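Supplementary Note 3. Input sequence used for the single-chain structure prediction.
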Amino acid sequence: MAFASESVPLFLASSVFLKKPERIMALSLMMVLCLLVYRLAEQRLRLRLVETGQTIPDQLRQPTNHPTLRWVFQGFEGIERLQMTLPTRAKQTLVRRLQPLHEQILALLGPAAQRYYQPSTGT
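The predicted structure, written as discrete structure tokens, is reproduced below.
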């Protein structure tokens, strides 16, 4: 899995100007919910790594069973999920640049995560 070696911020946002207290509270709630989902996914991955006795490479390419989800997400950069409609009107999904390490991580996260990266052909 190739990771970016440069020190590039992974979270970029422009200034947010909210005036109404209700909107500030709504934005805060959304941010807290996002952090909760992020933390639960990180916890699930770490737990599954320990349960299965598996490891994945860390930033120094050393095996670890305690990765940060930020590092894992960074490794998924560059994967493309393409959805196309064929001339027969059938829909096809292609996934490019998915490596065995990505598949290992997705298997550890479970079927819900794996579904997003499965190639498919349907009507």
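The radius of gyration is 18 Å. DSSP finds four helices and five strands in the chain.
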